[in-house]
């Protein structure tokens, strides 16, 4: 539709609308000019980058990691896939809380594993030990904990994580901590990583993070894993056979990002925070949209639109989203992509002007069809 000149406001994209910081780009150009990017690197990444990431995690989580605890991969998605390849055998089960990021289940299935989706019995979209235990079997190998959560933007508290962590340790279950949005937290809320908790929880945790969200580097494809050395060695073997290594130029860009001035991340965080605060009440004003818990991090909102779908006379959320795009020219993602069909995901990683315009269009669309 955009190619035809139609003014479509895209709230479906899961990437920052900012450009990669200038000093990061300059470091990549310098690496090219100096010939550093011309050759293979170690499968798990260049020494300097792995050391810098280890220090970054140590500073944040009070860990004592070295380069041997870190593997760099071609994006967070590849990092998660390498983890699945490393810890799962055919038939192994992975508990995945709802709502979930779209690739979790597929990556488990690609290695012959069985994804088991766990629905929270409350309005927070956060699971508790009770729900996890109800789904656990002798085949359960891992649980994925995503905080801040994509698509809801909600954050697990320290107490919630400790309960889940202790339960996982008790049953010898890996904790896969997807902390990709850890630097994008708003309005005084606090992010806590599983890596910050007790030594026993930390030992069971495999941390996944990357540079795409905090540094606006989605196109550079830089993710990483941090875990016990034995796991990292196995992940390194998987990466070596799957991709050889992350593109060298991206690694030098990442090195500049993680060791350089972090003001760029804070500027983006503040911009997202303002957008969230400005448009959250506008979302709540749309007839039939329910969003009782204001997002605390990431850059998404995940309202329940069951009433709006019904008010408009549509059968499904997918039909609602299709008509919204066709008539109001606003693109959203139906919640079925995240395992919860009564919701839609709205990204506020776009200009505040467009966001306000999109909220107005959505409200008019619902009122028109009521």
TrEMBL record:
<dbReference type="GO" id="GO:0030170">
    <property type="term" value="F:pyridoxal phosphate binding"/>
</dbReference>
<dbReference type="InterPro" id="IPR050596">
    <property type="entry name" value="AspAT/PAT-like"/>
</dbReference>
<dbReference type="InterPro" id="IPR015421">
    <property type="entry name" value="PyrdxlP-dep_Trfase_major"/>
</dbReference>
<keyword id="KW-0663">Pyridoxal phosphate</keyword>
<protein>
    <recommendedName>
        <fullName>Aminotransferase</fullName>
        <ecNumber>2.6.1.-</ecNumber>
    </recommendedName>
</protein>
<dbReference type="InterPro" id="IPR004839">
    <property type="entry name" value="Aminotransferase_I/II_large"/>
</dbReference>
<dbReference type="InterPro" id="IPR015422">
    <property type="entry name" value="PyrdxlP-dep_Trfase_small"/>
</dbReference>
<comment type="similarity">
    <text>Belongs to the class-I pyridoxal-phosphate-dependent aminotransferase family.</text>
</comment>
<dbReference type="GO" id="GO:0006520">
    <property type="term" value="P:amino acid metabolic process"/>
</dbReference>
<keyword id="KW-0032">Aminotransferase</keyword>
<dbReference type="InterPro" id="IPR015424">
    <property type="entry name" value="PyrdxlP-dep_Trfase"/>
</dbReference>
<dbReference type="InterPro" id="IPR004838">
    <property type="entry name" value="NHTrfase_class1_PyrdxlP-BS"/>
</dbReference>
<keyword id="KW-0808">Transferase</keyword>
<dbReference type="Pfam" id="PF00155">
    <property type="entry name" value="Aminotran_1_2"/>
</dbReference>
<feature type="domain" description="Aminotransferase class I/classII large">
    <location>
        <begin position="7"/>
        <end position="361"/>
    </location>
</feature>
<dbReference type="GO" id="GO:0008483">
    <property type="term" value="F:transaminase activity"/>
</dbReference>
